[in-house]
Amino acid sequence: MLPVGWGRAPGRPAERRSPDARLAHVLDPVDPRVPAEQGDLDPAVQRVLDAAARRGVRLEIHRLADTTHTAADAARALGVEQAQIVKSLVFVAPREGGALEPVICLAAGTNRVDVALLAAVTGESEIRRATAREARELTGFSIGGIPPLGHPRPVRVVMDADLGRYPEIWAAAGRDRSVFPISPAALRALTSATVAEIAEIAPDVPRAGSPAADLGTRASPPGRPAAPGT
Fold first, then answer.
1. Cα–Cα distance measured from residue 176 to residue 157, given in angstroms and rounded to the nearest whole number
2. What count of other Cβ atoms lies within 10 Å of the Cβ of residue 17?
3. Is pLDDT of 69 > 90?
4. Strand partners, 94
5. pTM of the entire structure?
6. What is residue 133's three-state secondary structure?
7. 187 with 211: CB under 8 angstroms?
8. Burial class (CB in 10 A: 0-12, 13-18, 19+), 150
9. Per DSSP, what are the bridge partners of residue 128?
């Protein structure tokens, strides 16, 4: 057996080998269900928290390692169904002098908003989807992180009735990768939203599932039957 230190010059410490540069650095896993530290939040996220606090609600912010720019991204990061992701979509209705009034649609992550149905629910025949610039200027938040609340001015909110299919849904908290869980009923109350059937539906295709939470009275467009519970 060779003596310890054999092959080294006397008195010279053993060299500490550095990690192989060819090995990729592996980040520590991030548990999306662990709330973010409240004292180290982006100002945009803090505005959302403050808006909820003024309504007597304490939100739990979660910061994800992966992007949440799309509903599919957020669902993968959280390990939930895409329909549990709340898309905060900004629409605008024209006003005199070229002004625009924002309307925020809270849509289930798998749904597309039917603009004709939205126009009927809001009474705004010329309503349209906002551009990225308009959305930023009117809400104070960028696409990918637009929250249901915390905007600099009062905003009308219309909530997709399909969000009531789940006991818990997830919404953006003001910045990409920042989200919060909430019940559909609590989200409706927090945003004073009008709940309505606003999703595009293929002909003769029934909507899957049934509401799992009581969202209160739903608005129905003219000619369309009222939702159960109306």
1. 21
2. 6
3. no
4. 100
5. 0.74
6. helix
7. no
8. buried
9. 92
